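Chapter review. Work through the record for Amino acid permease before attempting the end-of-chapter questions.
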Amino acid sequence: MSGEDGELARNLGFTEAMTMGGGTMIGAGIFILPGIAAEGAGPASSLSFALAGVVALLAAISLSELATGMPIAGGSYHYVNRALGSFFGSIVGWGMWTGLMFASAFYMIGFGQYLVAPVALLDGRLFVVLLGLLGLAFLIGVNYLGTEESSTFQNVMIGAETAVIIVYLAVGFFYVDSANLEPFAPTGVSGIIATTGLVFVTFLGFEIIATVAEEVENPGKNIPLTMILSVVLVSLLYVVVMIVSTGIVPFDELGGSLVPVSDVAEVSMGTAGVVAIVTAAVIAAISSSNSSILAAARVVFAMGRDNLMNDWLNATHSRFRTPHRAVVATGAVTALLIAAGLQVGAIIELLAEVASFSFLVAYSLVHVSVVVIRRADPDEYDPAFEIPSPLYPGVPIAGIVLSVAIITQMAPVVIAIGCGIVALGAAWYLGYVRYRDIDESLMGEAIVGEPTETGSPERYRVVVPVANPETQKNLLRLAAVNAHTHPGEADPEIVAVNVVKVPNQTALEQNVQFEEERIETQRQLLDSAREAAADLDVDLRTRAIVGRDIGRTILTVLDEENADHVVLGWRGQHRDREKVFGSTVDPVLKRAPCEVSIVNLEKGEIGSPVALAGPGPHAPIAARRAAEFATLSGTKPTLLNAQQPTDDDDIDPVDVGESMIDEVAREAGLEPGSYDSEVIIADDIQSAILENIGDYDTVSAGVSEKSGVSKILYGSIAEKVESHAKDNVVMIRGPYDTNRSVREAVAERLAD
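Structure tokens for Amino acid permease:
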């Protein structure tokens, strides 16, 4: 199955994207770089971080436009390859892959340094390198096996290290001695710029957001917001860290330390602070290196997708469904770089600067790509975020100039290695790529320009997630009859969706390419849906999506399709106390922005439908749904209401029930005579309703509300119907427009 036949689920919300971007940048660099930076620029190293942040911000702005215009896995590599062609694509692809490996080795050396320093029995490079290799082996194993818990573990690690840094700054502020900040710039402007190239490695995290752009929810908003916000916040954080660190420990002393933040913490926080910093540094190194390995494997895949890399390296493990060969290859090269620390004294500075060099080259070409793609204006390019007119083309021009300026100030050995990596990419193109790749760069179109086209009319749309060939035809029938009741200027449409779930370590598009057996099953399922729809006289479109969370993927589809209704199949079984309908259905029921029908068709045929016509807000929709279903069996729906007897002679419970039924029918848009009414009078309303619905084949009921009379009288009844009815049950919820509490709103935003 080709990449064009499948889609990637947008399961990464604001929090996840910020964690991937900002969390990675806050990572190990904040514990390792202060000493090296202080040695290179003194207290003015804070300006080096600020300048690096400016360069990263310019790149983030350009990448935000590209990522929202072409949200495809691969990040900078993909955009350069598309805009400038496979020659430059090869250079950037190899540069990003090697840059990420150099960065991962840098983090693992720092991991070893922070573990060795506090233990008196351990000393020397051998232990640092050995511990770095052991940490790398652990991460390679995690990424090879594809544990589901790794992303949650990553979030916890980033939260812990950030908390430690905040405490470090809050306490350290009171220990700053202004005398230590003099002289402020002992190495002058050249030292500040040279140090900028060294510390730029810590700003690579925002690139990861672009690398997974195709998986980000609401990309037009979340991609630019998370990329730009993460760069700004991390830049400010690093500036403050350097001022506090050099203000507590003189920069010449700090520059000679392998564990600079630990040395500062010893002065301001004592032994407890040192323990906390060492722990956080170890966590940060693991977290940052893990992110780099994940990103490196995705770059390799993106190159393979474009025929710039051999398919052998792109293979997905048959059992773990992870890019195991790319992971092992990345790990092997990274291990060699770590082992080089046995011979190279300044290995950590070298690793950091080479990684920075690779990405500065990549970002320079990214800025060029923005200009080329804007000029070419291809049909598929429709960015939700554009560089504002006053800043264009200033942003890409400034980005190129600053990147080149920083590169020129790097050490000769770094420039030599960096140019060697560029030469490797060029040689790879000449020796491998140009014989296999059809170059589709936009350079030609950029010279003459291309027109754009547009959109389609709005139509009533029903989304039907399908997973079971035995039940999907009935779900499509119910969706079709619902769609037929909403004719408009554009014909109504059904969208059948199937989601294949994959582990976190696997790039989603990689799964589309290589999970042949499961993807073929998905294809057959959707073909079957199309065949079923052919008899229903309704337009049907299918979507095959690869995602990590089925419920959240369905929610994303509902947003993208601007759906009016979603029809979900359900087996009629409780999972546990925390989940009413299950981990897939519950999130959709709670957060879908449209009508929701949860369908359990035990009989298969609709037969005689009945709707509970109570005071709940979803009762009119349940009545309307019962009327739609009745058309399938050629019957009338029955609207059922229950009342308790009263001692008041002026109140007739039957009249009250009939009035309520008529009101529900009116709100549902049902004409008089198109439905039957039944009013039950009983002391025990719940038992009476459960007894009477046994006379019908299909029960339609609104789901429970959180509070109020409707839950007491009818919400709990709906729950009983859902759990005890033996025939067809359809649980209904209207559009999600209820008011949220502050607590719910905060929780929902964090969930996004």
